[in-house]
Hints:
Elements (H helix, E strand, L loop, with lengths): L21 E4 L6 E6 L4 E2 L4 E6 L2 E6 L13 E9 L6 E9 L2 E5 L5 E6 L4 E3 L1 E6 L10 E8 L2 E5 L11 E5 L3 E2 L5 E6 L3 E3 L12 H13 L2 E3 L1
Parallel strand pairs: 2-13, 17-18
Antiparallel strand pairs: 1-17, 2-16, 3-15, 4-13, 4-14, 5-12, 6-11, 7-8, 7-12, 8-9, 10-11, 14-16
Amino acid sequence: MTTSPTLTQTPLNEYWHAGGFLISEARGHRSRDVETIGGAVQVYPGTVLGAQAGGVTAAWPGNAEQEDNNTGNGTIAMAGTPVVTGAQLGIYSAVATAPTTFAVTDPYGNAVGTATAGTAFSNQVAFTITAGATPFVAGDEFSIEVEAISEVFVPLNPSASDGSQDAAGIAFGFTDATNNDKPGTVVKRACEVNASELLWPTASTEAQIAAATAQLSALGIITR
């Protein structure tokens, strides 16, 4: 009787690596884009990402050529997320038509709405004008310059309201965004992924994961 040989093999440990969650993707690089990744964390391959609205603005009283010639001494404050959907590079104007109302125009002079003092305005840019002790008069003006527009991909956060609550892609590789935002590759469309290798936020509920999975599916990212 022949004795079966004893076979030994060193276990193979596979760690998270770039694209390891992918089952298939479109030819070339159609499934991936280089984006800005943030969130002040280390982002690992397979992390489900949301797209946080970004942007940089500056605002001041007076028009683009004037420091401040307003009669009213009220102020303007940009919102925490100052650049919203549809924003354009350039200088927006908010010109008083009455003591508490301002006609807002985009950098090309197109009307985008009416801002009321004491009420938050949000259309392409988001801000609040606050009336001062001296009332505004017709012609008083604030300028809002959109200096940069960006979309930052951060780990999905179902409880957020800044865009990161909706799944917008999956991190392809590792990005250390602990100290500052960095470029990184995001899988955004036309692929199949291994559901067991996706990284979700801690304490995500089954309902939240199901909702985010549906959002990925709508982008053409199919989980298997």
